[in-house]
């Protein structure tokens, strides 16, 4: 399965039903989970890495001067 980060992040950035807080909260949740996984020396799921990058990129696209 190929994940198109640019396309998915553009869709999320243009979705007005998702607030800036929703982006922040989702990123915080993913980062906390990645930290927990790392501390337990477990394998990091690639889907989580992609999800984090998609959210970070979408947030940057929505607020180019702030992120």
Summarize the structure in words:
With 67 residues, the protein is mainly α. It has one domain (5-62). Helices cover 70% and strands 0% of the residues. Helix 1 (5-14) crosses helix 3 (46-62) and helix 2 (20-39) runs antiparallel to helix 3. The N and C termini lie far apart (29 Å).
> How much is the average pLDDT?
91
Low-confidence stretches: none
List the helices and strands in order. HHH
- What is the share of helical residues? over 70%
Q: What is the domain tally? A: 1
Total strands: the figure is 0
Strand proportion, as a percent range, falls in: under 5%
Q: In DSSP terms, counting alpha (H) and pi (I) runs of 4 or more, how many helices? A: 3
Structural class assignment:
mainly alpha
Shape: globular
Biggest beta sheet attributes: none
- Tell me the distance between the termini: 29 Å
The quaternary structure here is single chain
Radius of gyration: 13 Å
What would a concise description of this structure say?
This protein is mainly α.
What is this structure's SSE topology?
Layout (H helix, E strand, L loop, with lengths): L4 H10 L5 H20 L6 H17 L5
Helix pairs in contact: 1-3, 2-3
Task: Describe this protein with a few key phrases.
67 residues, 3 helices, single chain, 70% helix, mainly alpha
């Amino acid at each position: 399965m190929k994940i198109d980060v640019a396309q998915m992040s553009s869709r999320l950035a243009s979705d007005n039903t998702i607030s800036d807080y929703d982006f922040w909260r989702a990123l915080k949740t993913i980062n906390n989970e990645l930290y927990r996984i790392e501390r337990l020396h477990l394998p990091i799921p690639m889907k989580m890495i992609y999800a984090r990058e998609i959210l970070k990129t979408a947030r940057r696209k929505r607020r180019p001067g702030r992120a």
